[in-house]
Amino acid sequence: MKKILFIVTEDWYFVSHRLHIAIDAISKGYSISLLTRISKHKELIERSGVEVIEWNINRSGANIFSEIRTIYSTFLAIKQSNPDIVHAVALKPLIYSAIFTRYSKVHNVFALGGLGFIFSSESLRAKVLKPIIIKTLKIIFKNTKNRLILQNLDDKNFFIETD
Question: pLDDT by residue (tens digit) across 58-69?
Answer without folding.
Answer: 766 667 888 889
